């Protein structure tokens, strides 16, 4: 078990090296090949492990999308079901914003500025960012998912972003009942994964120019909007500003 856990660490180091923009590979392909004889003789292998690595903690291996339905113990007051990526090395740096679509006559594009989010423990959130998606009533993506960069700053009970999201579909082409979701995520060092802390959403009738504040709900993110629970009784919100562009 220890050897397998160390191999898992090496695989994650290799994965992080492949996804890193820096030229120097921390964990090279040649290194990875040294693990092959160990894997082939895993039941009888008793030599010293070739790399000085800490074993990955035993954990459930998640199928794609399964993390949204997992329940983790929570150390915050709200508790509830957790959602997070199982990555021990958060190699995927948030910040996958897409440019505005070309304008079309008679069609409307939407830019949403994510100003800030109010949280009672805002200052304790590590590398917070927001994942933005547009879903239909069945929770199916209607546009590519976008991640904001990590927040600009944390101040009192607010995490400030001040970042523009360009919705990747003309408003007129969004299906009836669609909604725009905002999932607030942060890194949890004890559990070594990025967790969804809470989420908010905006429905089509809320698309109008100007400022809007929307309520925060407990995770896991309910894309079908069937079992919504407010994050807290306190008045905490996601603050947005909408701009409509019509040709």
UniProtKB/TrEMBL annotation:
Belongs to the AIDA family. GO terms for cellular component: membrane. One of its GO terms (molecular function) is phosphatidylinositol binding. This is AIDA protein. InterPro entries: Aida_C, AIDA_N, AIDA_N_sf, C2_domain_sf. Residues 98-245 form the C2 Aida-type domain. The keyword Nucleus does not apply. Residues 69-79 have a biased composition (Acidic residues). Pfam families: Aida_C2 (PF14186), Aida_N (PF08910). Residues 69-95 are annotated as: Disordered. GO terms for biological process: determination of ventral identity. Keywords: Developmental protein. Acts as a ventralizing factor during embryogenesis. Inhibits axin-mediated JNK activation by binding axin and disrupting axin homodimerization. This in turn antagonizes a Wnt/beta-catenin-independent dorsalization pathway activated by AXIN/JNK-signaling.
């Amino acid at each position: 078990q220890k050897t397998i856990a160390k191999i898992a660490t090496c695989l994650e180091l290799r994965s992080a090296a492949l996804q890193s923009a820096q030229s120097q590979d921390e964990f090279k392909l040649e290194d990875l090949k040294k693990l092959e004889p160990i894997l082939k003789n895993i039941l009888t292998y008793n030599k010293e492990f070739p790399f000085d690595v800490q074993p990955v903690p035993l954990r459930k291996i998640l199928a794609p999308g399964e993390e949204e339905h997992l329940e983790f113990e929570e150390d915050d007051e709200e508790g509830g079901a957790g959602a997070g990526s199982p990555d021990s090395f958060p190699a995927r740096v948030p910040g996958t914003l897409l440019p505005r679509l070309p304008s079309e006559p008679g069609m409307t594009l939407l830019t949403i500025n994510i100003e800030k989010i109010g949280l009672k423990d805002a200052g304790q959130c590590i590398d917070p960012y927001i994942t933005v998606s547009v879903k239909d009533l069945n929770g199916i993506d209607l546009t590519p998912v976008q991640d904001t960069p990590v927040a600009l700053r944390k101040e009192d009970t607010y995490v400030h972003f001040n970042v523009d999201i360009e919705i990747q579909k003309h408003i007129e082409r969004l299906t009836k009942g669609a909604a725009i979701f905002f999932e607030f995520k942060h890194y949890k060092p004890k559990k070594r994964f990025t967790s969804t802390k809470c989420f908010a959403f905006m429905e089509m009738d809320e698309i109008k120019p100007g400022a809007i504040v929307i309520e925060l709900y407990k995770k896991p993110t309910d894309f079908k909007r069937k079992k919504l629970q407010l994050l807290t009784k306190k008045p905490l919100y996601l603050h947005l500003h909408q701009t409509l562009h019509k040709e």
